[in-house]
Every structure is written in C-alpha cells, then in structure tokens.
Amino acid sequence: MHAIVATVTRFFSRSSGRSAAFAGLMMLAAGLATSQTDCARHQRAMRAMRAAFDAAPLPPGVAREETVASMGILSGNGNHCDFVVAARVRTRLAPADLAARLRAQRLRVRFDSGLAELPLWVVPGEDDLAREVLPPAWAIPGAADGGRAVVFAFWGGEAPGSDIRCH
CA quadruple 43, 48, 51, 56: dihedral positive or negative? Predict the structure, then answer.
C-alpha cells in the first residue's frame, strides 16, 4: 500500500496542476471516509437503542404491534443527531396508567458521547414531544384507536459529525 501511495504522490508532484488535483482528490477521499465513519457510528447507536428498546419489558396486558426506529434531524436546528424508537402497543390500560408504570424504567444505551439512561414516553400523554419527533401517522393515536398507545424513547445528544442525515 505504501508503494502505491508513493508512486501516486510522485506522479502528481511533477506538475503544480496535478498536485492541486491530487490534493483535492485526497481531501475528498478523507471527507468521504469521515462521513462514512460518522454514518457507521450513528448506525451502531441506532442499533443499540433499538436493541435496548426491544428488550425493555412492558407491563402485563400490553402487547407490541409494530416498532419503528428513525434517526436524523427530528428536532431542533441540526447541530446534533436525534434518535427515536417507538412501538405501537395494544393495551387495556389507560395512557396515564401505562405512563405511570413505565415512568421508572430507563433504557441504558451506550452512545459515543457516553452512557445515556432514556425514559420511556407514552402517547397520548407526551403529545408535544411526540409531534416533534415521531412520524405524523404515529404521533397521536386518535379516539378511534381505543386500546392503542405509542411508547417511545428519544435521544438527541449525539454530535452530527459529517453525517448528512443530521444536518
């Protein structure tokens, strides 16, 4: 590998035009590598959060129907990367009772910024946060959705780096 880099460097150093082109290509390659590194870092964080969410126990009488996970700019101004995992659940509990039972639970997720303990939120109930971070169809179950709620976890504390999904 070192020999290839040395050969390419000698070729491009023969003229200033080639040197500038080579420098530009190297900067582009470095930028793409950094972007891929940040994307991979965020994907690892999303998988860890989803795994912790899927492993979290739900109270008796509550069953998951469908789970979604998303990341990117979900709230704020784009100077961080947001992560959300949500499950549509069927329950016999009132949303306030479900929220009270889940209030003490925390998802423990290791992000690059450190260990986070994320609360579980319930909709209806945490409607303002839900409108901001959940897909519109998931944010607020309607009155016709009796027996359904959405349980979700949200994290907005990761540096965006060069991951374009977070800018």
Answer: negative
Residue 19: how many CA atoms within 13 Å on its side-chain side? Answer: 5
Beta strands 62-72 and 114-119 are: unpaired
Dist. CA 151–CA 117, nearest whole Å: 16
Overall pTM > 0.85: no
Residue spans of the domains in the chain: they are 2-38, 46-166
Residue, of 27 and 115, whose pLDDT is higher: 115
Length of the chain: 167
What is the β-pairing status of strands 81-91 and 62-72? Answer: antiparallel
Are 159 and 81 within 8 A, CB to CB?
Answer: yes
For residue 101, the SS3 value is helix
Instruction: Give mean pLDDT, residues 62-76.
Output: 86
Q: What is the reported pLDDT for 28?
A: 46
Please write the tens of the pLDDT for every residue from 90-123.
888 888 888 899 988 899 998 877 899 999 988 7
The C-alpha atoms of residue 157 and residue 148 are separated, in whole angstroms, by 29
Report how far residue 4's alpha carbon sits from residue 44's, in angstroms, rounded to the nearest whole number. 32
**Residue 126 to residue 118: CA distance in whole angstroms:** 14
